[in-house]
């Protein structure tokens, strides 16, 4: 009970607290009341339009090659199912009725961080809890869709993902908005727990409307021998997106890798960071970002901090400015002990003319050559992803590529 | 046929080529000699159409078409291809996909082509990323095999290649140019390529390539002009013996 009071107090205190990064948002201009929707018996009940929107963010209504699904429309969880033993998928509001969730809920993220975490606590709509049980191998991905349908809504979700000891879990989350949504706010708190020797891949694909404001707040922890792959794809226009997912490696040999693919369109502001703290022996971290500014503004932050000799961390940020716009890369390394091995490379520029001419001398037109190079720039090999999931990410990237380039 | 007339080229504010005349007929292979900085690579880049090489006078005719100001990709589609000395790395583009691009996305057995030049293991790697000198050359040849151009420009195809791979490179170039490699006598050569049409222009410093590719003519580029022409073997021997100075003085 004390804990609840404490959180409520923090939420109250942070109600007006501006975030450290990103433009400030007036929360009062968004509505928090959504229509209460009944759960769907099956995903075939979704409209054709909804299915095709979700598919663009990697969420397949046929559930083929999926281990489970969670669908939230506006404020309501309309579908949550696990298709596999050893896998739990449930709306967080249901999970909050269970005792064990208290070991996880708001244990990593801080209610008092800013007005958005405060909002996610006080006006929680829903969100998902996805847990693989000890030893379970959930090789097909679990898909989750956070779908914003109602205009001018502030959608507040809280997600918890737990890969229990010795388990393997892959999650693909698509955040999408309906075609008629002019403006909206998405606030999403996510907490990731990768237990001893577990493997978790989390892939988030954003496919928002141009007028959307997006404030994810993610924190993760990786125990001994655990692996956390965190992939983020945002290639569609969005008004303002700010996030700075943070993960702590607390057990020996824990590994985290963050990959992000960003495209900034005219009028879009993307402020996307990644922070990994290497706090245990033999931990490894890698942050890789690819950013293309197509006329928008992109800030790509990366922060690696290590305080144990022998840890290894690398940060790589490459930016491409295609049609004006600007990219600010801020790579930070913080070594706090002798014997840490940390490096970064950052490059911002235009496409190398020699590469275009090289491809042209093999028969491609200038436009074809440019498209080929951009496609290559955005294709990052992510070690450890199941081939099927990799194909899905590639397909999502290719589709957005085609639409926006 | 390729015909170059009075070609003058500037790179930045420097005049690099000062009136080059050169003709390569169907089925002919020419060797381009010249000291460092004489303009050899510039000539090849100009032929391929690289825009930073600005043609200020003269013209280039290929297959009867004036290509002096034609964009690079149109020249490629017309049948010109080049093996680069130092091609750029393209991250995220698999060598396999580049081979398909070279083939115009037509039917090509990429694996079979690649194994001919020991490149099968490189198909899934990013193009030129971390390739050694020799691997770059083989990758360039593989691209030309898929592209199958009529005029092939080689910029030092054997530089950085170990002795073991020289024969592979040499024989592959010979086959690209429809010239059987050494070991066959002239009669056999003609029989194996009766209607030889491929044209080649090869830059070499070491001359190793001459052991594998029978060449018809040699040209020496010196200070932006063709300073002498003749039998490629003889030119190479003169250069090896006494350097470019004598070669040029003798011819002038």
Whole-Å distance between the termini of chain B? Answer: 27 Å
Strand order of the largest sheet of chain B: 6-9-10-3-11-12
- Helix-strand string of chain A: HHEEEHHEEEEEEEEEEEEEEEEEEHHH
Helix content of chain A: 10-25%
CATH topology-level fold name of the largest domain in chain B? Rossmann fold
Name the shape of chain A in a single word.
globular
- What number is the mean pLDDT of chain B? 90
Q: Uncertain runs of chain B with pLDDT below 50, 5 residues or more?
A: 187-191
Please report which band the strand proportion of chain B falls in: under 5%, 5-15%, 15-25%, 25-35%, 35-45% or over 45%: 25-35%
How much strand content do the residues of chain A show?
35-45%
Q: How is the main sheet of chain A built?
A: 10 strands, mixed
Please provide the count of β strands of chain A.
Answer: 21
What is the strand arrangement across the widest sheet of chain A?
2-1-5-7-9-11-14-17-19-21
From the alpha carbons, calculate the radius of gyration of chain B and give it in angstroms.
18 Å
Structural class of chain B: alpha/beta
Query: What is the C-alpha radius of gyration of chain A, as a whole number of Å?
Result: 20 Å
């Amino acid at each position: 009970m004390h804990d609840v009071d404490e959180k409520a107090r923090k939420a109250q205190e942070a109600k007006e607290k501006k975030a450290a990064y990103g433009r400030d948002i007036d929360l009062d201009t968004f509505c928090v009341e959504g229509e209460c929707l009944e759960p769907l018996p099956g995903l075939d009940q979704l409209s054709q339009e909804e299915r095709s929107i979700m598919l663009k963010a990697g969420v397949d209504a046929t559930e083929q090659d999926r281990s489970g699904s969670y669908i939230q429309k506006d404020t309501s969880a309309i579908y949550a199912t696990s298709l596999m033993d050893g896998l739990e998928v449930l709306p967080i509001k249901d999970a909050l009725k269970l005792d064990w969730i208290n070991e996880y809920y708001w244990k990593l993220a801080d209610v008092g961080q800013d007005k958005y975490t405060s909002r996610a606590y006080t006006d929680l709509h829903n969100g998902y809890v996805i847990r693989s049980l000890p030893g379970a191998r959930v090789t097909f991905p679990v898909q989750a869709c956070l779908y914003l349908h109602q205009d001018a809504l502030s959608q507040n979700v809280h997600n918890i993902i737990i890969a229990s000891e010795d388990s393997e879990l892959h999650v693909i989350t698509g955040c999408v908005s309906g075609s008629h949504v002019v403006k909206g706010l998405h606030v999403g708190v996510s907490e990731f727990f990768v237990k001893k020797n577990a493997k978790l891949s989390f892939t988030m694909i954003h496919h928002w409307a141009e007028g959307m404001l997006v404030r994810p707040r993610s924190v993760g922890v990786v125990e001994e021998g655990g692996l956390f792959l965190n992939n983020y794809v945002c290639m569609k226009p969005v008004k303002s997106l700010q996030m700075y997912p943070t993960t702590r490696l607390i057990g020996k040999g824990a590994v985290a890798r963050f990959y992000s693919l960003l495209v900034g369109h005219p009028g879009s502001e993307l402020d996307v960071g990644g922070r990994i703290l290497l706090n245990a022996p033999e931990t490894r971290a890698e942050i890789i970002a690819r950013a293309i500014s197509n006329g928008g503004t992109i800030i790509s932050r990366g922060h690696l901090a290590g305080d144990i000799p022998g840890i290894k961390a690398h940060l790589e940020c490459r930016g491409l400015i295609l049609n004006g716009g600007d990219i600010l890369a801020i790579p930070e390394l913080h070594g706090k002990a002798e014997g840490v091995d940390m490096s970064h490379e950052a490059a911002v520029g235009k496409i190398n003319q020699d590469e275009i001419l090289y491809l042209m001398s093999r028969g491609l037109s200038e436009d074809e050559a440019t498209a080929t190079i951009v496609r290559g720039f955005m294709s990052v090999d992510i070690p450890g992803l199941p081939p099927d999931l990799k194909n899905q990410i590639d397909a999502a990237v290719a589709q957005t590529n085609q639409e926006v380039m | 046929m390729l015909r170059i007339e009075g070609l003058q080229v500037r790179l930045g504010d420097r005049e690099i080529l000062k009136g080059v005349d050169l003709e390569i007929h169907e089925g002919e292979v020419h060797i381009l000699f010249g000291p460092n900085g004489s303009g050899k690579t510039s000539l090849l880049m100009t032929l391929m159409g690289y825009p930073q090489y600005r043609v200020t006078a003269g013209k280039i005719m290929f297959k009867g078409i004036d290509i002096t100001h034609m964009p690079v990709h149109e020249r490629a589609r017309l049948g010109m291809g080049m093996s680069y000395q130092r091609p750029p790395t393209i991250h995220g583009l698999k060598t396999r996909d580049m081979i398909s691009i070279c083939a115009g996305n037509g039917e090509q057995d990429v694996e079979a082509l690649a194994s001919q030049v020991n490149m099968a293991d490189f198909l899934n790697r990013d193009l030129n990323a971390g390739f050694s000198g020799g691997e770059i050359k083989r990758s360039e040849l593989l691209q030309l095999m898929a592209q199958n151009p009529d005029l092939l420009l080689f910029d030092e195809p054997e530089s950085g290649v170990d002795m073991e791979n020289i024969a592979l490179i040499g024989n592959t170039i010979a086959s690209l140019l429809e010239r059987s490699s050494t070991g066959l006598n002239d009669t056999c050569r003609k029989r194996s390529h009766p209607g030889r049409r491929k044209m080649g222009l090869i830059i070499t410093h070491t001359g190793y390539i001459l052991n594998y590719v029978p060449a018809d003519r040699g040209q020496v580029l010196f200070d932006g002009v063709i300073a002498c022409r003749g039998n490629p073997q003889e030119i190479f021997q003169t250069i090896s013996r006494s350097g470019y100075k004598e070669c040029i003085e003798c011819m002038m």
